[in-house]
Design the sequence.
């Protein structure tokens, strides 16, 4: 699919009545069209994988075009420079959480988690923890040691009071704790350590994680998973 065709199709799918609702959920809608994600996924299937198309879509600055860019890009062709350029453009949590699904299958993912977790920009830092949550959910081959190394990073950044950061830190901690019983135990241990920190954000992150990771339904699921 050519760039001009992709942009035309996006504009044909525009749904301005969705914009107020998106804005209420904290999404920057200044350059948004109001297209639902399932429609973008359908369009991505029709477009196919195309790295050059992805780059042009991103450069358009249109919110949904950037979402589409992450869906059509070729992970093998994504460069570290591209990742750094794209992450600096993040202006909404939904762009962040969608595009990290592309980033998580690149060779730079672990390097970027550690680097971005120390960055000051809200959505760059969120990206680090969204990546941890994504890997915890999707990478079935990743070893426990990978996630144990993330726990001190989570603890270190648990005092960030910014809404989109603290929610991602919490998401990452819960994601690790839901992988298996061993990681559940270690995540709960970290959560209890975080709970003792004199920080409103840290206490919220910890209490929410402890509630879910200690839930009998969560533990029952992990027990069944262990027995398989």
Sequence:
């Amino acid at each position: 699919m050519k760039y001009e065709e992709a942009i035309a199709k996006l504009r044909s799918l525009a749904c301005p009545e969705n914009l107020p609702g998106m804005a209420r959920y904290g999404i920057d809608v200044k350059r948004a069209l109001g297209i639902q994600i399932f429609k973008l996924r359908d369009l991505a299937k029709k477009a196919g994988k195309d790295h050059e198309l992805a780059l042009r879509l991103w450069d358009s600055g249109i919110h949904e075009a950037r979402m589409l860019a992450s869906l059509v890009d070729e992970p093998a062709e994504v460069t570290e420079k591209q990742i750094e350029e794209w992450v600096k453009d993040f202006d909404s949590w939904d762009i962040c959480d969608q595009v990290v699904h592309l980033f998580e299958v690149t060779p730079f993912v672990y390097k970027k988690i550690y680097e971005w977790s120390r960055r000051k920009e809200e959505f760059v830092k969120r990206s680090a923890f969204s990546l941890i949550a994504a890997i915890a959910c999707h990478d079935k081959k990743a070893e426990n040691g990978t996630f144990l190394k993330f726990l001190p990073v989570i603890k270190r950044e648990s005092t960030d009071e910014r809404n989109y950061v603290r929610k991602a830190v919490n998401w990452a901690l819960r994601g690790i704790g839901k992988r298996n019983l061993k990681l559940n135990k270690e995540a709960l241990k970290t959560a209890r350590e975080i709970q003792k920190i004199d920080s409103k954000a840290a206490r919220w992150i910890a209490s929410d994680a402890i509630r879910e990771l200690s839930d009998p339904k969560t533990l029952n699921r992990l027990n069944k998973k262990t027995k398989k």
Observations:
- The two ends are 44 Å apart (CA to CA).
- The mean pLDDT is 96.
